[in-house]
Amino acid sequence: KRCGDVWIGPIHPSKMATLGLLMHVMLVGAAALPASELQTTWQTWKGAHKRVYTSVKEDARRMAIFAQSKEFVEKHNSRVEKTWTAALNAFSDLTWEEFKQAKLMDPQECSATHTSSNWTSPNVQIPEAIDWRDYLPGPWPVKNQAHCGSCWTFSTIGTMEAHYAWKYKAMVNLSEQQLVDCAGAFNNFGCNGGLPSQAFEYLHYAGGADTEAAYPYTGVTGTTCNYDGNPAAQVADVVNITALNERELLDALGKVGPVSIAFQVSDDFRFYSDGVYDGVCDRDPDKVNHAVVAVGYGVANPTTYAVPYYTVRNSWGADWGVDGYFMIKRGVNKCGLADCASYPIVG
């Protein structure tokens, strides 16, 4: 029978094999489209990040990891209620275990601020929002810790550079490597981790910090300390903010300047691109595995769905996040960010 010009009657047996083959080709072609799209995205990403692998097998393994990263980013960004966006980046071909080995320190116990604090709030009004970068006397490039769990040194030195800048109205590029190599006696462990509060104590007793030029960064724990005893900046005292007291943290950040903080990085955070991070993470003070510099705070979307946040300087290079910075939810001790906060009194 016919319905218009379309034959709907029985198909002749001689045509059945041809039709079956045609259907198979169409189905295979449709299934291959996502793979073709993935391959194109993969090749583009490799070119952008200058990736060359040792074998075809390794390339295929990395592409499979990349595909999982791509799937997470697309799934996260499709959520209507999200406060932050994710993106593929330089870490998209790494497993979570590889990323932890490359960028995160071993979990640290924030003991220095657990029992007491020498924080005294200045008798001034705290601003509704602040970004201390606006008050810098010069450029302050975001640094990259490379393949070393030395984030604690970048947090320490970053906070010290900022406080030095506002006291002396001059920028100084200080040495992270000095802390990596020399601060072990203060319960720090080079590329395996440490805490800014303990690093500030080292700088106080050692006399201060060298410049980057005098003690350049290598990203490897050195076997000897090469500090020359001629510091470019000194620490007169260390202020530890009471653990878990986010009100103290906010006061210090609003009234004094940037603060070194540590928090727990979980798997999704490495894909952060923009917005106020509010992912799934742990708040326990013995789980912090990354140290950074809080440089300000504010409120996102104040007229609609208001989200209070901190602005934070990272040490994964300027091409990560928002020019090397990120925002994280404020007021809920997100990821344990108020567990061990401190800053130096620059001499």
Automatic annotation (TrEMBL):
Pfam families, per database record: Inhibitor_I29 (PF08246), Peptidase_C1 (PF00112)
Domain of life: Eukaryota
InterPro entries associated with the record: Papain-like_cys_pep_sf, Pept_cys_AS, Pept_his_AS, Peptidase_C1A, Peptidase_C1A_C, Peptidase_C1A_papain-like, Prot_inhib_I29
Residues annotated as signal peptide: 1-32
GO biological process: proteolysis
Cathepsin propeptide inhibitor domain: residues covered: 42-99
One of the record's GO molecular function terms: cysteine-type peptidase activity
Keyword Signal in record: yes
Key words of the record: Disulfide bond, Signal
Peptidase C1A papain C-terminal domain mapped to chain residues: 126-345
Family, as annotated: Belongs to the peptidase C1 family.
PANTHER family: CYSTEINE PROTEASE FAMILY C1-RELATED (PTHR12411)
Descriptive protein name: Peptidase C1A papain C-terminal domain-containing protein
UniProt organism field: Coccolithus braarudii
